[in-house]
Amino acid sequence: MAGRGRPKGPGSSLRSRWLGERLRGLREAAAISTVEVAEFLQRDRSVVGRYETGDYPIRRADVYALLTYYGVEDKKTRETLLELCEDVWRKGWWDPYKKEVTKDFIDLPWLESRTDGLCTYQNMVIHGLLQTRAYAETVIRKAEEGAGEEQIQRWVDLRLGRQAILAGDGALRYTMVIEEPVLHRPIGGAAVMDEQLKYLLDLGERKNIEVRVLPTAHGPHSGHLGSFELFVMPEQFTDVAYVETLGGALFVESPDVDRFEFAWQDVSKAALDPKRSAALIKTILKETK
């Protein structure tokens, strides 16, 4: 049969896995077997299976054909899956960095570009999308001790490049809840922290950004297990939580994402509002001089 072997193109990604899961669901709803799909597409059955797991990329023409074969007539469903297929194959500005970061990390800037809103809880450092260059460089140098200078600067460039989604037309709706001790932690020294805290105040003035501080005086809450990010996705997708650990990055989808949504509601309720948070940051700024 034609089509044996691994197709050329992008490798497995969160978007390819999402596309494969949706196509598998549509196939099963239509009571069509993978053998029948293989015959229809003139592909090996194992390739069809890898399409559905997201291990292999699937071409737009094949997605279009399958939607018709599965009897999918809903316009929104067809447009959503065809657009997702295009995202699988589309090169983003972050693609040149693929070989310099972990495979899972490269899904992060894609999620940031597609989400309707990003909620992040931080208990150790200021979130990467709100870091100054000096702060980011200090954090990355410590996390990647032994890396060369050129590589360090490339990683810093990648982090700062991601921040573009917070500005301009269609700027991302962003909320950060940050533990108060993070604002006291002397990352890079007094001058770096002075610049960073002032930058937080400036960002908090934007209509699309909320910076909220969770006071040290507050008791236990649901974020005690560590920092996390919660991506509020368009209605056709599940929300996604993202967690970084020493063992690697983890993306959490439905139904397990519910735990992160609950935790977010809890820490958000406990945090100061943006105005009181800004006042606290200004107080900390005075104390650091």
From TrEMBL:
Per its UniProt record, what Gene3D superfamilies does this chain match? lambda repressor-like DNA-binding domains
For this protein, the record's InterPro entries field holds: Cro/C1-type_HTH, DUF5753, Lambda_DNA-bd_dom_sf
Q: Which residues form the HTH cro/C1-type domain?
A: 22-77
Molecular function GO terms recorded: DNA binding
Protein's name according to its UniProt entry: Helix-turn-helix domain-containing protein
Which species does the entry assign this protein to? Answer: Glycomyces harbinensis
Q: What is the lineage of its organism?
A: Bacteria, Bacillati, Actinomycetota, Actinomycetes, Glycomycetales
